[in-house]
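Example record

One chain of 116 residues, shown exactly as stored in the release files.
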Amino acid sequence: MPDVEMDDVVEVLEDFNRRREERLNSQDVAVNPALKKKSNFQTEDQKIERQKREERVFWEKMTKVLSDKNHSVWRALDKALAKYYSLLVDRQNLIEETGLLNQQNEELKTLLNQYL
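Predicted structure tokens for this chain:
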């Protein structure tokens, strides 16, 4: 499976859903030719309402893309990665603090050598 950038997730899901719907519609039409689309003589309100229904159905389907097991795995992974990120940030802060302490130590050494 190809890697998907975070910005492209919605587009990929829409494409997946569109292809799936086309496949299902073509199967339905093959079984029952009477299901072919009728003419599009609809008012603007009907078109808007149909679009809203389609969007609602689309997003309902997107909530079921992952099974409960996969969803719990992703939640656990997210939680573990958040802890790991926190650990890395703490480590970075400690490294910076160590660098500052080393710098102060060198300054104190030079001051001590000047007094001696």
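Notes: The chain has a mean pLDDT of 84.
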